Amino acid sequence: MLSLTVSLILAGCSKDTDCKGERICENAVCVSPRGGVDAGEWALPAGARLKAASPAPPPAPPLVAAPPPAPPLAGRPPLRPKGVTAEERVFPRVVRKPGQVCVQSLDEKGSLQESCRPE
Q: Least packed by Cβ within 10 Å: which of 38, 45, 79, 90?
């Protein structure tokens, strides 16, 4: 294995990829590429790189203005609870719920109290 590595080092390069950078392999020696008409793809100056032809990105869509904020609801009356009939204001009262019978009453503060039992 060692003798193979030594022979490759003494022999120089065998292909262009053995050379660093833009250099190419000619007669087992890495050299800079030659310019000129007959040089083909190597006619570019050393260090020049071809850019891949990629399509330009599409233009950004135009910005759309946000709709103006809605004006405050000035002058609109506040929401009121649904009207309560005189019949609904009578306490204590019995109310049936699914599977239960409940008695509703008002406490001293006017809060609704409810006591339920199964039917």
A: 79
Interior CA angle at 26 toward 20 and 32, to 5°? 50
Domain boundaries, the chain: 2-43, 87-118
Following CA atoms 44, 45, 47, 51 in sequence, which dihedral angle do they give, to the nearest 10 degrees?
Answer: -30
Task: Give, for all 119 residues of the chain, the pLDDT tens digit.
Answer: 444 444 445 567 888 888 888 888 888 888 888 754 444 444 555 556 656 566 788 888 888 888 887 776 666 676 776 766 766 678 888 989 999 999 998 888 888 889 999 98
Only one residue has tokens 């039992």, namely: 117
Q: Residue 21's closest CA among 8, 34, 30?
A: 30
Residue 10 host element (H or E): helix 2-11
Tell me if the pTM is above 0.70: no
**Class of residue 17 by CB neighbours under 10 A (exposed 0-12, middle 13-18, buried 19+):** exposed
- Give first-to-last CA distance, the chain, whole Å: 96
